[in-house]
Amino acid sequence: MPEDLTPFAWVGLSLPILLITQRWTHRHLRGLALLLTGNPNWSVVLYAIILFPGVLLHELSHWLTAGLLGVRTGAFSVLPKLETDGSVTLGYVQYYKGRNVGPFQESLIGAAPLITGTAALLLIAFRVFGVSDLAAVIQRGDVDSLLLALQSLFATNDFLLWLYLLFAIGNAMMPSASDRRGWPVFLGLLVGLAVILYLVGLREVLIQGL
After folding, report:
1. pLDDT tens digits for 85-127?
2. Mean pLDDT taken over the chain
3. DSSP state letters, 134-156
4. How far is 193 from 201, CA to CA, in rounded Å?
5. Could you give the CA distance from residue 21 to residue 196 in angstroms, rounded to a whole number?
6. Which of 74, 129, 166, 169 is the most exposed place for a label (fewest CB within 10 A)?
7. Residue 123 belongs to what H/E stretch?
8. What does 25-63 look like in DSSP terms, one character per residue?
9. How far apart are the C-alpha atoms of 126 and 120, rounded to whole Å?
């Protein structure tokens, strides 16, 4: 595989793993909430409260992106709802799919939580926890320096709060099935465009643009 394409291969590999991990976490989090409360309705409330920061960022991302793209929005909610099939809807944003809303706009609206969630996680990791310093120490393989770096990490102000935000955002940023509705057509267009650019000899331009 060309070295330029390696990051995209890692993204393609990691996304399904993250999606499976999120589903596993949600399922067990709901189970834990039910064990703690003993009541299905109260367990949904506890489950929603734990993930609330991530759900709020998720739905705000949809709403703001739709507004920036000129797509008219309707109802907005971050209140949990227990569905008849036993699933839980933690929030939603309605938007009206008119003639001006094509696969491109729909894909961006659906992908918005993944983009903003990733940005939030990176900001916390690098600006608050300073993981770049920790990564450098790990690469050097110095055990004493690693222990000092870990002590510094755990000594971060409001460490548990930031760790909780990482958990809540990371487990609410993956697009739902409805969010991914417009992705196949949009990805098909991108692949077609990439093939055309490659065939006409613009591979380097394509890689640099990506």
Report:
1. 778 889 988 887 776 677 778 888 888 898 899 999 999 998 8
2. 83
3. HHHHHHHT-HHHHHHHHHHHHTS
4. 13
5. 36
6. 74
7. helix 103-123
8. HHHHHHHHHHHHHS-HHHHHHHHHHHTHHHHHHHHHHHH
9. 10
